[in-house]
Amino acid sequence: MRYLSGGESHGPCLTAIIEGLPAGLELENKLINKQLERRQQGYGRGERMAIEKDRVEFLSGLRFNRTIGSPLTLSIKNRDWKNWEELMAAEGSPPPDAEAVTCPRPGHADLAGALKYNYRDLRLVLERSSARETAMRVAVGSIGRVLLERFGLKFYSHVAAIGPVNSPTSPNELPGLAGRVEKSPLRCADAEAEAAMLKEVARAKEEGDTLGGIIELVVMDVPPGLGSHVHWDRRLDGRLAGSLMSIQGIKGIEIGAGFAAASRRGSLVHDPIVPDQDRGLGRPTNRAGGLEGGVTNGEMIIIRMAMKPIPTLGQPLPSVDLETGREAAGAVERSDVCAVPSATVVAEAAAAWELAVVFREKFGGDFIEEMEAAYRYYRETLNRRLKNSPR
């Protein structure tokens, strides 16, 4: 199962083609649109969110709300396109008054992308490197999520920190606090931490600055055995880390105890295995974060992500004008002050897609009932094995 996406930030639309979905999977655009709405919310977002109202449209691969096994094509229109039709036209010549972007923003892809592709106008970089791309990533990941939720998997996320302010909420508390997180303007589960975070974001906005933070993601009811230990590129922890690190602004990933494990002894890092009356085997702790040797172990997946502050600043850092070679301030584009809350939704989608891919690899099936039958057989086999029942 794979997908390709296309589209620029101020182009006519974002598109994607998904290949490999089983036939018969029920999809409704309202389920995907709900996730797109979640991505657009959050205190600290910029003016673009007041313009766009993201809605997905299915162009192929679906008939009467069910997949038919052929590639599924998605489209999300950019409402701001009407303001950029001349400047971002696919054909013709640029308008005579069009100004090239020539001052790269430190921390953005502007300079690196221009050097790689030999661009003089940095707009050719920023249009695709923009986090606008994550709208389609959320749509695609939401389809993976629909597939996984059919098998009982559940996704939760929250903002664990913004700037210097940390939330005391633990991963185990998230299912019970999901309603609170959804109502929070910062997707923070703790009211006291939220109030302090709001002040930090307001202060950064006032000073023309930006803020990053920490995202925590939890996936529950994951079966053991997803991923593989037999080759490096099939290890699920690596695949999840790669997918999540590819989200704009993410600079660090932890699974389970993460970096804290490096300063502890092994006896305080690894999770004992004990008899469990319900499951046959269990663990009193989950420092591994649900993954051992690149394979899910049946415990809750716990991932933390560090997101850097957005590089587009109201008070830009020093840069160089690539046309003149002289010192200049970095370009200023319309942007957010803090995108950590919306990045939690993107992280859910990215993780859901990667888990859906390994789920398909594990259970196969050309149609959804065939996949469900394989999953039932696997669960029955696991239950017999873990409870030491005779075959």
Overall description:
This protein is an alpha+beta fold and 391 residues long. The chain has a single domain (2-386), classed as Chorismate synthase, AroC fold (4-Layer Sandwich). Helix content is 32%, strand content 19%. The chain is built from ten helices and 17 strands. It has helices at 29-40, 48-51, 110-117, 123-129, 134-149, 174-183, 191-206, 236-245, 340-363, 368-386, and strands at residues 2-6, 13-19, 56-60, 62-63, 66-67, 72-77, 154-162, 165-166, 213-220, 250-255, 274-276, 280-282, 291-292, 295-296, 301-307, 318-320, 327-329. The strands form six sheets. Strands 8-7-9-15-10 form a five-stranded antiparallel β-sheet. A four-stranded antiparallel β-sheet has the order 1-2-6-3. Strand 16 and strand 17 form a beta hairpin. Helix 5 packs across helix 9 (340-363). The radius of gyration is 23 Å and the shape is globular.
